[in-house]
Every structure is written in C-alpha cells, then in structure tokens.
Sequence to fold (526 residues):
Amino acid sequence: MSLDIRRSSASVWGSASGMRTAQVVSKYIDTTTCIGCKACEVACQEWNDLGPVATEQVGTYQTLPTLHAEFWNLIRFNERDFDGGLAWLMRKDQCMHCDEPGCLAACPAPGAIVQYANGIVDVNPDQCIGCKYCETGCPFDVPRFSATTGKMAKCTLCVDRVSVGLEPACIKACPTGCLHFGTKQDMLELAKGRVQQLKGNGFAQAAVYDPQGVHGTSVITVLAHGDHPEYYDLPVDPHVPWGVKLWKTIVRPLGAIAIFGAVIGAFGHYMNHGRKGVKGADAHDANLPDA
Amino acid sequence: MSTVAPPSRRPMDPAVLVARDQEDVLVGNEIIRHKLSSRVLHWVVAVTFFGCVFTGMPIWTPVFGWMAHLFGGLTVCRVLHPWLGVAFFLSVLFEIFDWASDMRFRSDEKGWWGPKLIRYMRWEEVDDENVGKYNGGQKFFFWTAGLGALGLLLSGLMMWFPQSFPKILMQLAYLVHDATFILFMVAIIFHIYLGTVAEPGTFRSMTRGTVTRKWARLHHPGWYRQVTGEDPRRP
Fold:
C-alpha cells in the first residue's frame, strides 16, 4: 500500500507527496464483543518491541492508568450502574488517527508528524524535537513524551505492517473478532450492520463513534451506549482545540506579517521622516561633538 | 650612551574612564549617560533576548526554520530556548532594579502609549523643555518590556512543563507566548531603529557610555540642565 503523504507537520506549502490515490483505512472496534482479554495489548507490545511498563493498582483490571510512551494500546475498563444492573464497559484506547489531526496541527517540527494518504497519522522520531506541543493539540489525550528518548510516541496503526499488506498486530491478535481492519468504507458498513443488530437487541442508543469534529477518525468504535461516549472515556465532541487553531492559523501568520512589517515600517519611516533633529534649529548635527 | 624610549601609550579617554562607575556627569564636552555596569547589563539582556529569538523563531514557524542552523538544528533550539529564556528574564530583572528609579513616570508624561508616541515619531517636540534623562516613551517601553518579559517567562514555564497544567491553560499559554513575543519583537525593531540610524549619537551611549552636549540638549533638555546647569535652549 502506498505511503504517499497527505499532510506533514510544520510545512508552509505543499506537504502532499505522490500522485497515487490511496483508500483510507480504518480499524473497527466493537466494544460490545470485547471481553477484555488484552491480547491486543500484548500483540502491540510485541510487534512494536515495547518494553514492560511498571504499573499501579487503580482498582480495576486496567493494565495502566493511562497510555504511556511505551504502551500505545490500552483496554480501558469502566464500570457503570444502570437500572438493569452493572455494565462493564471495555474500550480499546489508542491513537484515533483523526482525519484532521490536532497533534499535526500543533507540531512545530517539519515532518515530525505525517498523515499518509491512507489516513494513518504517524510520528517520525528523528524529526521530533520533544516540545510536547502535540499533547496540547490532541483532543483524545494520546501522544506521550518519552523521557528515555526525548521524543513523543504513539500508536502508528502498524503502518509498517499495513504498508506490506498485513493487518495491524492488535487486529490479528483479537480472539473474539471484535477488531477488524479494512477500508474506512467497509468498516463503516460493518459498524452500521452491528449497530442495527444492537438496536434490535434492546440497545436503542447504540451508535458508531466516528467523530465529525475531527472529520472522522481511522479508528471507528461501536458503542452500545452511543449517546454517552464519556462512559467509555471518549470525548463527546472532539475537535482540534480552538486555541491551537487560533494560534496556528491567525496569530502566527499575523505575527510574521507584523515582524516583517515593522522592519519595512522602520525603513519607510526613515525615508519619510529621516533622522531626528534635522528639522530643529539647534540640532542640525546632533551627532557631532560640540565645538 | 643612548636610552630606550618607553613604549608610548595613548592616554585613556577621560570620559570613558569616568564612565566605568559614574553617570550623569560632564567630562570635557561629553556627558556620561550609562555607567559601565548598566551597559554590560543592557548587552546581556540583548544577547539573551536574541538568543531566545533565534532559537524560538524556527520553532514558531518554518518560515524562520533557517535560524535553527545557527545552533545545529531544531532540537538544539528546543533544548537551549527555555534556559536562554530564564537567563533573559533574570537579566531583565537586574536591569529593572538598575533603572527603576530613573523610570518613574512624572505627571506630565502620560499619554505616551498613543498620541504622544505618534507625535514623537513625527519628530515633533513632546514634553518639550522638561524631557529628563528618559522621555515618557522610553519609560513606557521600559515597563511594558518588563511586563512582557514576565508574560514570556510565565507562559514559557508552562510550555516547558505542559504536563503540569490543564490543557485549556496550555492553549492559552501558547497564545500568550506568541502574542507577547510578536509585540516585543515589533517594539525591539523600533528600539534598535531609534537607537541607531534614526537618532544619531545615541548608540555610543550604550558602547562608550557617553553622549555629546548637543545630543543631550536635543533629546533630553531637562537632563542636560540638570547635569550641566546650563540652559538647554541657549541661543
């Protein structure tokens, strides 16, 4: 599969490379058939050669309290009381591979974060400067800074596997079939079918989580309680933070214009008004010592 | 029998010698404006400021990415910038203590943030005979620069340790750091312009420390009267 680039961080103009059209790919996650076995966590650690991470007990089955620079795929375990009893909600947390990635918008290092034509958002550690701007830009709280490498790290959607026609490691490991991988279109079809099934089974609020605030994601999630993504630690309406947009699209270009403008303005002032003192009677050669 | 002449040494410029530790005094035809320690402090502020500018601007926008080559790459800039920023703030702090007493606004020095500044930039006389060692515009620049340095420090510290602050505050920090820097940079460009080509005779006050009588009469007549006891508008 082509690894042409659609967007690249901190590029002024023309970051898209290549002329091949690539279909957008997506993970499919069905939270309703996830059994919390964590096979995907193990597969992710193995394929990406990530070391073990010390954990702490948070009172659930969750491996770690949150994502980590060396732990990119985390099953979140949430418990909720409903009228009908207790619901044990498991959700695979990882980079959502947004169509409009906030991390990429915030990143100041050219080429450190790229979005391939197939929708995968990837990090180039050799270009990363470790400024952590991407943490502020991400509406899903995904990128993590590694104190070991001084770089940020996150799920790559196994771009190294996808590019040679394999499915991501987590998908391959899933024993219940709650994870699938394919084109975004196919995955949406699959998800819609599953939502219909769930609605027929009494989950009237079931829905596909493919948030349009970031123009959709390349990780789509089927939620039984689709009206409450927050039950699964998912943001209700994620979008690239307004502060990052204002900063990068308005303040920064205006600032660059203001700085160039000040230089031109000073030069123009000199042409128009000249040196101070020339007009004054006493001041004709103010720069010369008194006789 | 012949004697060997001692090596001839040009006598040290008396004004420069006095300027090592005194200011606001007349030496010959020169007036000492900035004592040595104030000048050194000013250049420490300038060097740390431009260190921050050249390490920060390539991170700010790729348009200025070429500046990163001065330091060996963008990562070096990212590592240096916060330390240079702290050094800049500390030197500004020392400078504020050094100059604060001369920078108190007098009651007739209001309005320099706008109307008076525009009149000044047209080279019209503002505050006229009474302009002291610093005019209202310089005082306004001094205090806003101090405030700007504080804004850059606080927002910069947040950007240095983003994990310690809520994300909503971090967004604000980036905006504050950016906007403050832009205003600072525009002000510094005019500061340099006024201190060099636009007002000849000014730059030497920050190198040798001295200015001419004529310069003082033109730009700071009140200060001239105070230092020399002479009427700055003598015929």
